[in-house]
Write a structure and sequence with these properties.
It is a single chain. The chain has 310 residues and is an alpha/beta fold. The protein is 32% helix and 29% strand. It is built from ten helices and 15 strands. It has a seven-stranded mixed sheet with strand order 6-7-8-3-9-10-15, with helices on both faces. The protein has a four-stranded antiparallel sheet with strand order 2-1-4-5, covered by helices on one side. It is globular. The mean pLDDT is 89.
Length: 310
C-alpha cells in the first residue's frame, strides 16, 4: 500500500470530525473519498498531509509515519484556493516547485508544456490577479503537480470549473494514473467519482460507511435499480408495488426496487399509463448509493454488521 490510515481520530471539543478511520490506498489508482458536506473528508486529508495531527491512530506512507519530508512526495490542492496574486504565473510555478525541492532549471523546462496544455501559455508573464477564477484554479493545479509527486491529493478539484475545463482536468488525471501516479480526491459530486475512481470510500458523520473497488461496491448493493425514459407524467410510479424509491434526472428516472419486486409487473403498470422509451435493469448508480447510505446513521449501520467493505 502506498498510503495507510490506521484508526485515526480527530475531535474538536465535543465534535468528533473523524472517528476511528482506517484506509488503504494502493499505488497507481484513483481513490475517491466521498461523503456529504461536513462528513470529515477535508479533516481526513489534512491529517494525511500532517497539517492536522490525529488525536490517535497513525498515517503511513510506504509503511513509514509521515513527516515534514513526506510533503515533497505529495502534491496537494486544498479546497481553499490561494495564490500570490502579485506574482507572474512563471514566478508562482517556480516558487512552489522550489518549495518541493526542485531546482529553478528543472522547473523552467516544464512550465511551457504545462501552460500550453492548460491554455495559459499567453499569460506566462502576466500577474495572477489578471486571471479569471477558473484560470487561477488551473494554474494552482499546475503548481500541485509540477514537481512530479508520487501521491496527488485533490480536495473538491472540480468545484467552480466549467465543463470544458472539467474534461481537461479529468483527462490529465487519467494520464497521471497511466504514468503510475496515485490520485486521491474528495468530492460530493457523485457523477465525477463514478467516472474516475477505481476505489471509493464514503465517510458519513466522521465514520467510514463504504470502502472498496467501485465495481465491487456497486455490485454489493445488488442489481435492484431500473432506469426508465418515459413520455408523460410519471408521478404515479413511486406508488407502485415493489418500487422503494424514485430519483428523477433530466433525461431519465431511476427506480430503486424492493428486494422481491416483480420488474415485469412494474413495467406493465407503467406502460399502461405512459409511453415507455427505455426500461433498463442496471446496477445502482453511485449517486443513489450515496443518497441511500447518507440517510442512515453510521451507528445504526454498524449495528447491522459494520461498514460495507468489499
Amino acid at each position: 500500500m502506498l498510503l495507510e490510515l490506521k484508526n485515526v481520530r480527530k475531535a474538536y471539543g465535543d465534535k468528533v470530525a473523524v472517528d476511528n478511520l482506517s484506509l488503504d490506498v494502493p499505488k497507481g489508482v484513483i481513490y475517491g473519498i466521498i461523503g456529504p458536506n461536513g462528513a470529515g473528508k477535508t479533516t481526513t486529508i489534512r491529517m494525511i498531509m500532517n497539517i492536522t495531527v490525529p488525536d490517535s491512530g497513525e498515517v503511513l506512507l510506504d509503511g513509514q509515519r509521515v513527516t515534514s519530508d513526506f510533503r515533497n512526495r505529495v502534491g496537494y490542492l486544498p479546497e481553499e484556493r490561494g495564490l500570490y496574486k502579485k506574482m507572474t504565473l512563471e514566478e508562482v510555478i517556480v516558487y512552489m516547485g522550489e518549495l518541493k525541492g526542485r531546482t529553478r532549471r528543472e522547473l523552467i523546462a516544464k512550465i511551457d508544456p504545462w501552460l500550453q496544455r492548460m491554455n495559459l501559455a499567453e499569460y506566462r508573464l502576466k500577474k495572477v490577479e489578471e486571471l479569471s477564477k477558473g484560470m487561477q484554479q488551473k494554474l494552482q493545479f499546475v503548481t500541485t503537480i509540477i514537481h512530479g509527486p508520487d501521491l496527488i491529493i485533490l480536495d473538491e478539484i472540480f468545484s467552480g470549473l466549467d465543463p470544458l475545463n472539467i474534461e481537461l482536468i479529468k483527462d490529465i488525471i487519467l494520464d497521471l494514473k497511466r504514468e503510475g501516479k496515485t490520485i486521491l480526491f474528495s468530492t460530493h459530486v457523485m457523477e465525477q467519482a463514478e467516472k474516475l475512481c477505481d476505489h471509493v470510500c464514503m465517510i458519513n458523520r466522521g465514520q467510514k460507511v463504504i470502502d472498496g473497488r467501485l465495481n465491487e461496491v456497486k455490485a454489493g448493493f445488488g442489481k435492484n435499480s431500473v432506469q426508465i425514459d418515459i413520455e408523460g407524467d410519471g408521478g404515479f410510479i413511486a406508488e407502485l408495488e415493489g418500487v422503494g424509491g424514485v430519483t428523477e434526472f433530466n433525461n431519465y428516472i431511476e427506480l430503486n426496487l424492493e428486494e422481491k419486486a416483480d420488474t415485469n409487473c412494474i413495467l406493465k403498470a407503467i406502460a399502461d399509463r405512459v409511453l415507455v422509451r427505455r426500461f433498463d435493469i442496471v446496477e445502482p448508480s453511485l449517486y443513489n448509493i450515496f443518497i441511500d447510505t447518507a440517510r442512515i446513521d453510521p451507528a445504526e449501520l454498524n449495528n447491522k454488521g459494520g461498514t460495507t467493505d468489499v
